[in-house]
Amino acid sequence: MTDTDSIYASEWRARCRANLVRSKLQRAKPTPKPGQTIIFDEPIRFNDGEDRDRFTVIANQKGKAPLFRDPVTGTVCRVAKFRTRGYRLINPVIVPRDSTNG
């Protein structure tokens, strides 16, 4: 990379570097899998006026992005650009199979 005296070019390069870091951090987030619970750091306001932050992840048969089900109402929704939001995942409880009962 060459040095420049242009303020515009220097600011543009800084924005590019910041975008690369942000993209890398978003890709590093764990991918929600069906059955997991996702809890967003900030509640999301929906068209019905309700704020929700906790969902069960469900498979999306028509696309790659997961769908989210409100555990209280059962409403299924999409969350656009969910990876840009802060969230944490809770794995479902896995009950070990009793080998004596088949």
What would your notes on this structure say?
Strand 2 and strand 3 form a beta hairpin. The N and C termini lie far apart (64 Å). The protein has a five-stranded antiparallel sheet with strand order 4-3-2-1-5, with no helix packed on it. By secondary structure, the protein is an alpha+beta fold. The chain has two domains: 29 residues; 54 residues.
Fold blueprint:
Layout: H1 7-28, E1 37-45, E2 51-58, E3 67-69, E4 76-77, E5 87-90
Antiparallel strand pairs: 1-2, 1-5, 2-3, 3-4
Q: Separation of termini?
A: 64 Å
Write down the secondary-structure element order: HEEEEE
Strand order of the largest sheet: 4-3-2-1-5
Q: Helix proportion of residues, in percent? A: 10-25%
Quaternary state of the chains: single chain
Number of helices: 1
The whole-number mean of residue pLDDT values reads 84
Radius of gyration: 20 Å
Overall body shape:
elongated
Uncertain segments are: none
Q: Total strand count, please?
A: 5
Number of domains: 2
Structural class label: alpha+beta
State which percent range the strand residues make up. 25-35%
Biggest sheet record = 5 strands, antiparallel
